[in-house]
Task: inverse folding
């Protein structure tokens, strides 16, 4: 999709609210053209993706059947379904954050590139380097060299993201459709902490879990009981709902 | 004796301009003294071009000969020798920098001191460095093996020599390709008429547009018979395939698989297209030897 200006974009997303909101790291001469070749690629920014689940080991994974609540590693033999939830915590996000800021330092001190850090809205961080001119025109091979250098410095990043010159990335200020948390710019490591405050939703909701389990969600310890309604902060309820842990039944502002 | 840079390194010339000044076509340059000189070079003579009366013209004649000969194998044998001769002719860091600039890579020289020792470091900005070197796929030039500070890549002498070697080879290859085009070229089409090629490969090669499977079959075949530049041209639209074939991770389709893919056009009685190629080559070789022995007293 292409828009003439910001007003048209805002109008469209206000009337047809999308679950995810992305923009392309690539710049095109004719972004509205149907075929990729006709768009006329002008260059792309450089993106880095640091995911907590790639960095932390022993993240607890909870698998269950969303229909009957049966907990188990394999697909439910009766309903043929399975939902997986990864228990990400502050400590794990902190490791990802340390990697992210180390990446920013290597980009600046070694490569002479300025990276902007964003919370991805889920379980990691994005680093965005604005690339114009020859930098923007670097192809996948050249970008692979950059990732390889960064990995060599002990920083874990998703190589596929950086080498992709037509990568979509979440628009800052939008909500991550799989978590309900806001994507936002970070200016320092201290600026970030993990918790329900990352959600823009306020108030209290009634939440009905699909599974009985004790777990930690957004740094909140919860005792979920299948089909037993519970009152939780709305941000937490929306997050758990999008993670497939249950459904939001009522909301009080 | 100091020679102008272009006499010592004639690949820096503008070959069209040289011919324009002489008012002749590429083929017309390959006569008389120049023809003899390049023929001697083809036979293995490896003397600096500055030893010739007309260094640029001799080198150009040499390129024209290489461009006109429909033989990638010959080019693959000759080119490294020429490149190596040019690299060994570089006598100072200053000359190296001039050469890099002449080949389109902006570089700076830094005289540095460490532990009471003085040495030269070549400095190249990160983005031009990446643009110029990533295509060479050389571990020695890989960014992760190098020192990079504030967007500047620091090259010591061995790495800088390796880089200039790649740049020179690339420039000469590009000159040969340009000249081939200008000459109406011994292109892939003429190669496809090669009697050694199996019918399926000739058929695929005659197509204007190749899908990925066809490009893979043709590209792998060409790579296996050392027609690298042709393989690269065929695989231009499929960069991943080019990388895989380049790294030797693809083997040629068997005739059985070619049949399954609808690419087989004749029952040659072989197991794969390469077997056809090499059996034809051996046959032609023995015929050649046979006809020569018939002509001898």
Result:
């Amino acid at each position: 999709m292409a828009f003439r200006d910001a007003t048209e974009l805002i109008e469209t997303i206000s009337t047809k609210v999308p679950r995810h909101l992305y923009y392309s790291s690539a710049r095109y001469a004719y972004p509205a053209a149907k075929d990729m070749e006709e768009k006329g690629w002008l260059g792309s920014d450089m993106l880095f993706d640091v995911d907590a689940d790639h960095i932390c080991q022993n993240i607890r994974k909870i698998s269950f059947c969303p229909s009957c609540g049966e907990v188990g590693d394999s697909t439910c033999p009766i309903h043929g379904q399975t939902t997986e939830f990864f228990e990400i915590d502050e400590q794990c996000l902190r490791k990802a954050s340390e990697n992210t800021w180390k990446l920013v330092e290597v980009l600046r001190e070694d490569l002479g590139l300025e990276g902007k850090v964003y919370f991805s809205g889920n379980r990691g961080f994005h680093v965005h380097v604005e690339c114009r001119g020859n930098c923007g025109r670097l192809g996948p091979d050249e970008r692979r060299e950059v990732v390889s250098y960064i990995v060599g410095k002990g920083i874990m990043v998703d190589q596929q993201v950086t080498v992709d010159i037509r990568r979509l990335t979440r628009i800052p200020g939008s909500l991550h459709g799989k978590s309900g948390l806001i994507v936002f710019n970070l200016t320092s490591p201290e600026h970030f902490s993990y918790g329900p405050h990352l959600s823009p939703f306020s108030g209290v909701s009634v939440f009905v879990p699909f599974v009985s389990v004790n777990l930690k969600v957004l740094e909140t310890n919860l005792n979920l009981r299948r089909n037993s309604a519970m009152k939780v902060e709305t941000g937490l309820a929306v997050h758990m709902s999008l993670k497939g842990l249950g459904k939001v039944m009522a909301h009080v502002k | 004796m100091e020679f102008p840079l272009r006499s010592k390194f004639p690949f820096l010339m503008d070959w069209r301009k040289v011919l324009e000044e002489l008012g002749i076509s590429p083929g017309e340059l390959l006569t008389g003294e120049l023809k003899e000189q390049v023929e001697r070079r083809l036979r293995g003579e490896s003397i600096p071009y500055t030893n010739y009366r007309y260094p640029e013209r001799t080198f150009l004649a040499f390129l024209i000969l290489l461009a006109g000969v429909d033989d990638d194998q010959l080019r693959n044998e000759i080119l490294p020798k020429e490149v190596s001769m040019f690299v060994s002719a570089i006598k100072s860091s200053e000359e190296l920098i001039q050469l890099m600039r002449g080949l389109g890579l902006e570089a700076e020289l830094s005289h540095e001191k460490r532990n009471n020792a003085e040495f030269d470091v070549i400095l190249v900005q990160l983005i031009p460095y990446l643009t110029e070197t990533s295509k060479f796929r050389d571990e020695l030039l890989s960014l992760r093996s190098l020192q990079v500070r504030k967007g500047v890549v620091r090259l010591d002498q061995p790495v800088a020599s390796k880089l200039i070697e790649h740049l020179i080879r690339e420039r000469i290859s590009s000159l040969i390709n340009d000249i081939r085009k200008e000459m109406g070229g011994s292109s892939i089409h003429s190669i496809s008429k090669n009697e050694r090629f199996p019918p399926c490969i000739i058929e695929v090669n005659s197509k204007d547009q190749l899908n990925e499977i066809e490009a893979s079959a043709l590209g792998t075949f060409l790579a296996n018979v050392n027609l690298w530049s042709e393989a690269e041209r065929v695989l231009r639209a499929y960069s991943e395939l080019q990388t895989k074939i380049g790294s030797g991770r693809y083997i040629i389709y068997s005739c059985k698989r070619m049949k399954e893919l609808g690419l087989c056009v004749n029952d040659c009685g072989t197991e794969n297209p390469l077997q056809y190629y090499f059996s034809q080559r051996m046959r032609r070789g023995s015929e050649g030897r046979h006809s020569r022995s018939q002509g001898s007293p």
The radius of gyration of chain A is 20 Å. Residues 20 and 177 of chain A are 5 Å apart (CA to CA). The longest helix of chain A spans residues 90-109. The mean pLDDT of chain A is 95.
